[in-house]
């Protein structure tokens, strides 16, 4: 795995997410505000469009790693996906996601699960799609052992996937090329979901990267 690490940030800590979701629960209860859509609705919708127009069975088993407020799960349920589970290590995130999605889609399941520390026997394996938006980023920003944690993350995701299962990741801290380098050890690149690009100093780059891998 690549040696270079991101600069540590509070976004990589459990305390940050617990405080953030505690506030978001209050905002939701008082004003019906579902809270932050990380990296914006456009980037979430691009991935949801890709998943829902790629000929994937609507009953494929789908797990959202670090589901936060459940936005991606809700949008996929609205597109007809029926076998959805969201996991997060923060109980307040699970509480918020349940509040937001339970009336419209009581069938979405949730589980408290730490992708780095918990055993997969608590979550199961053979998922057809493992989805991540911003959670690998949070793991990478953790001040303690980011490199070891990224390796553990890679192993857990690989073991969670069925044969030919898809791993769909969106990051705003790692480029497409960095993600490909990190995950190619255990997965094959399927495609990069096109995202708007910018040019700076003669180099073309994306602010947000969404990449799809297939289990080797
Ligand atoms: C940037 S937020 C993204 C939330 C959601 N995926 C979205 O796009 O709105 C990162 C999420 O990852 C969760 N998270 C961070 N580290 C985790 C870990 N080790 N295991 C499970 N969830 C984790 C946080 O609680 C938070 O909900």
Helix share, percent: 25-40%
Ligands, ions, cofactors: S-adenosylmethionine
Give the CA-CA distance, first to last residue: 17 Å
Assembly type of the chains comes to single chain
CATH homologous superfamily assignment:
Vaccinia Virus protein VP39
The helix/strand order is HHEHEHEEHHEHEEEE
Low-pLDDT runs of 5+ residues are none
**Roughly what fraction of the amino acids lie in strands?**
15-25%
Mean pLDDT: 93
CATH topology call: Rossmann fold
SS-based structural class?
A: alpha/beta
Q: What's the main sheet like?
A: 7 strands, mixed
User: Do you know the CATH architecture?
Assistant: 3-Layer(aba) Sandwich
Strands, count:
9
Overall geometry: globular
Strand arrangement across the biggest beta sheet = 3-2-1-4-5-9-6
- Number of helices in the DSSP assignment: 7
Number of domains: 1
Q: Report the C-alpha radius of gyration, rounded.
A: 16 Å
Q: What is the class in the CATH system?
A: Alpha Beta
Summarize the structure.
This protein has 216 residues and is α/β, with parallel strands linked by helices. The protein has one domain (10-215): Vaccinia Virus protein VP39 (Rossmann fold, 3-Layer(aba) Sandwich), CATH 3.40.50.150. It has seven helices and nine strands; from the N terminus they run ααβαβαββααβαββββ.
């Amino acid at each position: 795995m690549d040696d270079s690490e991101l600069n540590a940030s509070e976004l990589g800590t459990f305390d940050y997410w617990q405080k953030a979701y505690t506030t978001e629960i209050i905002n939701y209860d008082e004003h019906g505000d579902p809270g932050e859509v990380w990296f914006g609705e456009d980037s979430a919708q691009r991935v949801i469009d890709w998943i829902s127009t790629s000929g994937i069975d609507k009953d494929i088993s789908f797990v959202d790693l670090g589901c936060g407020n459940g936005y991606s799960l809700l949008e996929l349920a609205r597109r007809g996906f029926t076998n959805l589970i969201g996991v997060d290590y923060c109980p307040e995130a699970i509480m918020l996601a349940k509040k937001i999605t339970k009336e419209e889609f009581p069938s979405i399941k949730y589980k408290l699960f730490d992708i780095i520390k918990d055993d997969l026997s608590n979550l199961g394996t053979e998922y057809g799609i493992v989805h991540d938006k911003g959670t690998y980023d949070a793991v990478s920003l953790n001040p303690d052992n980011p490199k070891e944690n990224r390796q553990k993350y890679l192993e857990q995701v690989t073991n969670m996937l069925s044969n030919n299962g898809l791993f769909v990741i969106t990051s705003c801290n790692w480029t497409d090329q960095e993600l490909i380098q990190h995950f190619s050890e255990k997965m094959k690149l399927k495609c990069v979901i096109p995202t708007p690009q910018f040019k700076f100093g003669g180099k073309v780059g994306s602010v947000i990267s969404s990449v799809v891998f297939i289990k080797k």
